[in-house]
């Protein structure tokens, strides 16, 4: 139950950051269209704003360590799944009283 709530919060955070990033990229196109449509006295400001947005690498980061978007969420899910599989395999090995040999030494997992 606790894990589902935490996963939901994490999904909400990454999804929101992803969508905001996509909207910022979309706004570049929209500003360009506005620039083409209106040839009036505010055109200089529109061009300046357009250039500013175009060169703005919009993204959310965790203190510049990594980007926060959907790829972060998928990475966390796959890492958790990998560790879960390792734990399940260890559990199965313990239950089967698993033994294996490595350079004349026998290792034993379980009782
Ligand atoms: C996340 O953003 C990428 C583009 O940066 C987009 O292709 C993808 O559909 C988005 N994912 C979701 C779940 O909205």
UniProtKB/TrEMBL annotation:
- Gene Ontology biological process terms from the UniProt entry: chemosensory behavior; male courtship behavior; sensory perception of taste; signal transduction
* Signal peptide range: 1-16
User: Transmembrane ranges?
Assistant: 73-94
Where is this protein localized, as stated in its record?
Answer: Cell membrane
**A Gene Ontology cellular-component term:** axon
Whether Repeat counts among this entry's keywords is no
Keyword annotations: Cell membrane, Membrane, Receptor, Signal, Transducer, Transmembrane, Transmembrane helix
Entry-linked InterPro entries: 7TM_chemorcpt (IPR013604)
Question: Membrane topology type, per the record?
Answer: Multi-pass membrane protein
The UniProt entry, under PANTHER family, shows: GUSTATORY RECEPTOR, INVERTEBRATE GUSTATORY RECEPTOR
- Know the name of this protein? Gustatory receptor
The species is: Ignelater luminosus (Cucubano)
Q: What is the lineage of its organism?
A: Eukaryota, Metazoa, Ecdysozoa, Arthropoda, Hexapoda
């Amino acid at each position: 139950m606790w894990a589902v709530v935490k996963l939901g919060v994490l999904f909400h955070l990454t999804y929101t950051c992803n969508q905001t990033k996509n909207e910022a990229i979309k706004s570049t196109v929209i500003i360009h269209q506005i620039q083409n449509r209106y040839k009036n006295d505010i055109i200089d400001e529109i061009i300046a704003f357009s250039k500013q947005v175009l060169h703005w690498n919009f993204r959310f980061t965790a203190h510049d360590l990594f980007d926060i978007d959907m790829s972060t969420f998928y990475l966390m899910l796959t890492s958790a799944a990998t560790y879960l599989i390792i734990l399940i395999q260890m559990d199965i090995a313990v239950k089967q009283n698993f033994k294996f040999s490595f350079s004349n030494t026998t290792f034993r997992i379980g009782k």
